[in-house]
Amino acid sequence: MRTCLVVDDSRVIRKVARKILEELDFECVEAADGSEALDACRKQMPDAILLDWNMPVMNGLDFVKALRREEGGDKPVVVFCTTENDMAHITEALRAGADEYVMKPFDGEIIESKLQQTGLLRAS
């Protein structure tokens, strides 16, 4: 089964994302910030990471930069999922190593579509 790490400081967002991902047959792990997420990746590298930008301790941008330096950190598909929607933020995220970018609020259709674009999911 494919795995996804959901990284967001909002428990509600993590719960909503988890429900969507589990319906897409992902096994989910959650982290409340980038530091927790990095620890989780060091234990078990996921297939995908749904990542918030603005979080305490370590933000999403710092996390993705650190992830890509880890052994096997080039493998997970990283989808930023954030309220930061200007072109400068999107460009910065993609340059740092993100694969896709989703604006909050999101729904299952958007997440499924982005994961299909990355090749992680097949179109149904």
Automatic annotation (TrEMBL):
Domain (Response regulatory): residue spans on this chain: 3-119
One of the GO biological process terms: phosphorelay signal transduction system
Modified residues (4-aspartylphosphate): D52
Keywords on record: Phosphoprotein
Organism whose genome encodes this protein: Maricaulis virginensis
SUPFAM superfamilies reported for this sequence: CheY-like
Name of the protein described by the UniProt record: Response regulator
